[in-house]
Design brief:
about 70% helix, 17 helices, 2 domains, about 475 residues
Length: about 475
């Protein structure tokens, strides 16, 4: 079931109406909460069943494993089984093909399903077991764990919510009604604009250039590379906004997943702003578990590299993702070395220095995205070779790249200005303090409603009707 479909909108509407009626006509908080959670659980499994009954079966087994081994305190066994499950479904063919190439044998792909959302709910299941083992949360009922792992707004592509944060919300009565709907629908619409107007239109240009890079000149390849940076941001942050909006309509708060990442002054800051919930998960459950920075500098560098390679592998079964993670791991290590040598964290950088560092960080991130988008390492190297060859070819400026860049720059400036106005005077020049925000309107007012529907009409008129799947939907 696609998030942008009448079937999905219908399911959300029925779920919201059911929750609203329960909230309105069942005054007993305990009964109200129990029925509401059953409604969310049933809706979530219907969402998965609509895609494939086998996906629902894998989800149910994963849920039972997480619940059973956390309850029985066999934490290590549960984590190993979950990791093995993810490895079997997602990486069997990748490992078999790699070994076949090493041995010089022919490779025949094994027919395996790739369950919807398995990367996201497996990480959530692991975090639940670890949190129970660390006594950050108590063991929960099977129904509660099932809802945590299957909650459909975040099921396909996150955000990866911490178990305790989710449990605290669903274990108490939630007031479902106009307030949750008016806020959630606006956040959803902002995400919809990012996806079907900006990301999908950029995808047309990116796909064309990446499919035949040798046909195009270096300038067009450069523009397509920048366009992909824009596309993946608008696509994934758009999905996150839509998930956050739908969850808010249903009375559940999901964590922020993006915070203007292309304003980062270094790669370390970038990973605090990009896919925030994955970065936090890797830091808490992998980096800290490996020792973090508590065992000396060399061990810290090894841990950083391990975390980023794991993050790369998590994204997909392809050497391109591993190399992408390797590049980011190397950049994080370089940044730490640079900070140690220059003591930059103790100095106040000039405005020009901030702009230069932000530009260089964006440039590095954009070049790394080539490996993320390419189908293979040779494909990525072909694009890079074409990018720096300066050889003539078809030149094709793309209007929507300019429009998307303008929207991103203006919205970033507005967010920067808003954030600085809310900060103490001695912090107003620190770009790292900038925060994204939703420019919400009051839908109970006439002009607020007019502005909202005008924006909806703008989306419908500018939307790319061809559409394309969410990039992170395949992970």
């Amino acid at each position: 079931m696609q998030m942008i479909s009448f079937v999905f909108f219908g399911m959300v509407g029925i779920t919201f109406l059911s929750l609203y009626l329960v909230d309105k006509f069942i005054p007993d908080d305990r009964i109200n909460n129990s029925i509401s959670n059953w409604i969310l659980l049933i809706s979530s499994y219907l969402f998965v069943l609509y895609a494939d009954y086998r996906f629902a079966a894998v989800l149910a087994i994963t849920t039972f494993v997480a619940w059973f081994f956390a309850t029985k305190k066999y934490y290590g066994v549960g984590i190993v089984l979950l990791v093995l499950s993810l490895a079997v479904f997602k990486y069997t063919n990748f490992f078999c093909e790699s070994f076949a190439l090493i041995l010089g044998n022919d490779f025949v792909a094994i027919s395996l399903i790739l369950p919807l959302g398995i990367s996201f709910y497996t990480f959530s299941a692991i975090s639940y077991i670890v949190d129970v083992s660390r006594r950050k949360t108590k063991p929960k009922s099977l129904k509660t764990v099932a809802l945590y792992l299957s909650f459909f707004p975040k099921f396909t592509s996150g955000p990866i919510q911490k178990s305790q944060d989710f449990f605290e919300q669903i274990e108490k009565k939630r007031d479902i009604g106009w307030n949750t709907f008016s806020l959630g629908i606006q956040i959803f619409v902002f995400g919809l604009f990012k996806k079907i107007v900006l990301a999908d239109r950029l995808s047309v240009f990116v796909n064309q250039v990446y499919e035949t890079p040798m046909v195009f000149g270096s300038l067009t390849v450069l523009l397509a590379t920048i366009a992909y940076s824009m596309q993946i941001y608008f696509d994934f942050s758009g999905y996150s906004d839509m998930a956050i909006g739908i969850a808010n309509i249903l009375g559940v708060k999901l964590p922020r997943n993006f915070n203007l990442p292309y304003l980062s002054r270094n790669v370390t800051e970038f990973w605090k702003r990009w896919h925030i919930t994955l970065s936090a998960w890797l830091q808490e459950y992998v980096y800290f578990s490996l020792g973090g920075n508590r065992k000396g500098k060399h061990r810290t560098y090894i841990n950083l590299m391990a975390v980023m390679i794991i993050g790369g592998i998590w994204h997909g079964a392809n050497w391109t993702y591993i190399f992408w993670g390797l590049l980011h791991g190397m950049s994080l290590i370089f940044h730490k070395l640079w900070m140690d040598v220059t003591q930059s964290d103790k100095k106040r950088n000039s405005s020009i220095g901030k702009i230069v560092s932000t530009f260089l960080t964006f440039l590095f991130i954009t070049l790394c995205w080539i490996f993320f988008r390419a189908t293979s390492i040779p494909h990525a190297l072909t694009i890079i070779q074409r990018l720096f060859s300066f050889e003539p070819g078809l030149e094709q400026p793309y209007l929507w790249l300019g429009i998307s860049s303008f929207i991103l720059i203006v919205s970033s400036i507005l967010a920067n200005k808003k954030s600085k106005n809310s900060l103490p005077a001695n912090q107003k020049m620190n770009i790292s303090k900038v925060d994204a925000y939703y420019p919400l309107v009051d839908l109970s007012s006439f002009w607020g409603m007019v502005a909202f529907f005008v924006f909806c009409g703008l989306i419908l008129s500018l939307a790319h009707t061809g559409g394309s799947p969410f990039i992170y939907g395949k992970f």
